[in-house]
Write a structure and sequence with these properties.
203 residues; alpha/beta; Rossmann fold; seven-stranded mixed sheet; 9 helices; 7 strands
């Protein structure tokens, strides 16, 4: 396996030492996108929030430091679930945060568990976008909001490691999928022309 293919696999499902290194790099490089996403999400103390593809728990940690909202995270990588728990141990033991293995199309939570949810740079790795959007809709309450934040295809195409394992999605296709799941959708530019957020509200 070439180095770029290895990187792509680690971005999609971080494992072992390589996964921990990739997650740390992502936390640093993606910080501007994280901050823009949290601003869009506008979490309040009464909210219950789900991070889909939480990685090493960096963004959950930011939220936990800033609000008393109830927080949860899921990640397909058991290694990242463990890393999130270690990073945010005081919030987990204090019962403000729970973290579980899972993926966007099979979320381990009852219907209507959350008021808000977000996913940052994970949609490229969802095998079935429609199934994931329907599942996210299921765990949100009426009026709930999901923010799907990602880089544009043009920006992704300029990165060498995205040429394998990444699935490029046209914004119109992602918007159509969200609408089929029962969301009203608004596209919001993020980071100039290299990123955007889809703000999806349950209708």
């Amino acid at each position: 396996m070439g180095f770029n293919a290895y990187l792509a696999r680690q971005f999609g499902r971080p494992t072992g030492l390589g996964g921990r290194v990739v997650a740390a790099v992502m936390s640093r490089q993606n910080r501007p996108l994280y901050e823009k996403t949290l601003r869009l999400l506008a979490v309040g103390e009464a909210d219950s929030v789900l991070d889909i593809g939480c990685g090493n728990g960096f963004v959950l940690g930011l939220l936990a430091e800033r609000t008393k909202a109830s927080l949860a995270g899921v990640d397909i990588s058991v290694s990242m679930v463990k890393a999130t728990i270690v990073r945010n141990r005081r919030f987990v033991t204090g019962r403000q945060m729970m973290v579980r293995p899972g993926d966007a199309a099979d979320l381990p939570f009852p219907d209507g568990s959350f008021t808000k949810a977000y996913s940052i740079n994970t949609v490229y790795f969802w095998p079935e976008v429609d199934a994931a959007m329907a599942e996210i809709r299921r765990v949100l309450r009426p009026g709930g909001v999901f923010v799907n934040a990602l880089y544009t295809n043009e920006f992704l195409a300029s990165r060498s490691h995205t040429q394998t394992a990444y699935r490029f999605h046209e914004p119109a296709a992602l918007i159509a999928s969200a609408r089929r799941a029962g969301f009203d959708v608004k596209r919001v530019p993020l980071l100039g022309d290299i990123g955007y957020g889809l703000v999806c509200q349950v209708v």
